[in-house]
Structure formats: C-alpha cells, structure tokens
Structure prediction request, 153 residues.
Amino acid sequence: MIENIVDFLREAYYWLLAFHIISVISWMAGMFYLPRLFVYHTRLEVGSSASEMFKEMERKLMRIIINPAMSATWIFGLALSIGQDSWHAGGWFYIKFAAVVLMSGFHGYLSMWRKAFERDENIHSEKYFRMMNEVPTLLMIVIVFMVFIRPFS
Prediction:
C-alpha cells in the first residue's frame, strides 16, 4: 500500500512540482505584501475609513491567498519529499525544512498582527513592520539555496 503511494508520488513528480511552485509563489507574494500593508496601516488613524479598508484588505489577503497557499505549499512539498525520499537526502533538506517551519511561524505572527489591527490594538511601529518585511526574503534565500545548491549532501 505505502509502496503504491510512493510510486504514484514519483510518477506525479512534475505535476506535484508545478503545483508546489505555484503555491510557493502565491504564499510568498502574500508574505511580502502583508507586512507592507501593515507599514501603511500604522500611519492611519484608528477607526478611519482608510483603516477599515486596510483591515478588509489584510483579512482577505490572509484568508483568500496566504492561508490556502501555505497549506498547498505544505501538502505538495511533503508529497514531493516523500516521493523523492528527501528525508535521507542530507543536511540541505533539514536546513530547508527548518527554514520552511520558520516561514510558517512567521506566517503565524502575520496572522496575530493582522488580528491586532482588526481589534485596533496594534502596538508596533512602522519601522518594526519595515524590518519584519525582510524576514520572508531572508528565509526564502535560505530555502532556494538549499534546494538548488544542496550543500551538506
């Protein structure tokens, strides 16, 4: 049974890879954009119509794009890793996996910050969100280098 599943995943490699790349691109687009929205949202007066519009934009971005894209990224990524037996591929895979876990944790922070804005309880500055906007970029660099360079194999 398990061998049949692994065989199927190997045969579907390029389909899984295509869907994985599509979901990663969607996830990363949202991960880059949401902190930028927070930068601009911090400038707005609480309760203003612009602030309420930003809340709606942030909520929709998270629920319609970022959350589904992250879920799809994990599903297709795990399917690829099982089909290609990446768990025995070497240190590069574990560094990449750790970076994806950290990216998912950052996703959780974005969700927490979005909810704080929703309740008009944001405590962070524009500068804070400008710095946080760089986190997904740094993690993405690590992930891409691990996948394509594969050091520590």
Observations:
- The mean pLDDT is 96.
- The longest helix spans residues 49-83.
- The helical segments are 2-11, 13-41, 49-83, 91-118, 126-132, 135-149.
